[in-house]
Amino acid sequence: MKQKYLAVLGRLSDLSLAELSAQFGNSVRKIAPSLAVFESETRPDINRFGGTIKFAELLSTSPVDYLLSLDFSGKFVIGVSDFSKGSNRKKSLNEAMKIKKILSRKNRSCRVLANSDAVLSSATSHHNQMGEKLGHIEFIKVGKEWYLLTGVQNITAYKNRDQARPARDAKVGMLPPKLAQILINLCGPLPKNSRVLDPFCGTGVLLQEALLDGYLVYGTDLSSRMIEYSEKNLNWLEKSNSLDKNRFLLSAGDATDFKWTEKIDAVACETYLGAPMSKPPVEIKLKEQKKECSRIILGFLKNLSEQISPKTPLALAIPAWLRPSGRYERLNIVDNLENMGYNVVKLNHLSQEDMLYFRDGQVVAREIIVLRKK
Ligand SMILES: C[S@@+](CC[C@H](N)C(=O)[O-])C[C@H]1O[C@@H](n2cnc3c(N)ncnc32)[C@H](O)[C@@H]1O
Questions:
Q1: Residue of the nearest CA to atom 19 in ligand 1?
Q2: 221 lines ligand 1 (CB under 6 A)
Q3: Does residue 211 form part of some domain?
Q4: 89 in a structural domain
Q5: Residue 313 in contact with residue 370, Cβ under 8 Å?
């Protein structure tokens, strides 16, 4: 049976919305700047969605009735995040205190989590093990509806995956694991044991996330040093997470002419992004970078097009450069792609303009493109 869920969206809420839409289809609706609702038959796993901070499930009873229905006799730790219009820290705390009062009349003890805002930050929820430890329960209020927190972003696990990996290379750039997850999810729901290709795999961040999702992975890269790094990282990931063996394949090769030897079910990657930059490039440098990146990315897409089956999904992060005006200049390759045998996929009425991933002031941003082989 389908259940209604709430997602608290991450910093770049449009990309988060696109990620959810690719997985849960037309049921996804944005209901506030940082909130979306959707329906699903299975409970979404927060550890697999880079763009969502919290997932919660619609409650069919009141919070108190829910708490009393639990097979738990210890002390509750409860928190309330109130996303209703006009809410504030005081109102939110009041809601929590009302719950505490009713519980104490029923001789149940309860500690209310102090909040500094109308909603609990994901760090607070995570550190207090809300929704994870027995009796630690967070309710999310949106207007008249109450939701039960089912998962909060595990900041510690992301940090470990990013920083504890044995082979790192600051020059190749650091694809954030959250963006890697978004790219994989943008390919849509894939059957178990699908093979995901990253033809610019670098140190293997995306391959790591795809392995954790249970997919077979295939990584190629121009640099054999990068392939060695990926191998080290994937072996480490396999061991530290007790994953099944023999689920990845790596090979050095130029994406513009490589012949991939295995059947490919989806392609997710951060392509070559050009030279790393700490300040906006001068016009001539930008022109040169755009030319080089277009050559590699279009060359790769042309080469790939002949090797994948119709309907194969692709999600790519390609570069966009900060201009002195504060806007990002894009590669503008989308128009060429229809002629090369790809359809550009539009998710949840988002325009291509909305599909940007960047931190404040970052010079080389990533534009996200979702395609499907015709
Ligand atoms: C921005 S990095 C990708 C980083 C990667 N996402 C990671 O997790 O480390 C781009 C990668 O593309 C590779 N590359 C550059 N030109 C290439 C080409 N023509 N074919 C394949 N790989 C290429 C580089 O060696 C580099 O590892």
A1: 254
A2: yes
A3: yes
A4: yes
A5: yes
Choose the weakest-confidence range: 82-86, 126-130, 160-164, 204-208.
Answer: 160-164
Find tokens 């763009």 and name the residue. 51
Domain range for residue 309? 166-373
Distance 370 CA to ligand 1 centre (A): 19
Give the end of a domain, one of 111, 128, 153.
153
Q: Are 205 and 177 in contact (CB under 8 A)?
A: yes
Number of alpha carbons in the 13 Å side-chain half-sphere of residue 95: 26
Give the mutation target among 171, 198, 200 for probing the ligand 1 site: most ligand atoms within 8 A of CB. Answer: 200
Domain total of the chain: 2
Residue 3's nearest CA partner among 19, 25, 27 is 27
Atom of ligand 1 nearest to the CA of 169: 9
Report pLDDT for 173: 63
The last residue of a domain, from among 109, 131, 153: 153
What is the CATH classification number for the domain harbouring 308?
3.40.50.150
17 in contact with ligand 1, CB cutoff 6 A: no
For ligand 1, whether the C-beta of 226 sits within 6 Å is: yes
Tell me, in angstroms, the distance from the centre of ligand 1 to residue 50's CA: 21
The CB of 364 under 6 Å from ligand 1? The reply is no
pLDDT of residue 335: 85
Task: Give the residue with greater pLDDT, 90 vs 348.
Answer: 90
Distance CA 313, CA 119 (A): 37
pLDDT tens per residue, range 22-74: 999 999 999 999 999 999 999 999 999 999 999 999 999 999 999 999 999 99
* Any ligand 1 atom below 6 A from CB of 272: yes
Which residues, including other chains, have CB under 8 Å from residue 138's CB and lie 6 or more apart? 56, 78, 79, 80, 81, 113, 120, 125, 130, 131, 148, 149, 152
- Closest CA to ligand 1's atom 26: 202
At a CB cut-off of 8 Å and minimum separation 6, what does 26 contact?
none
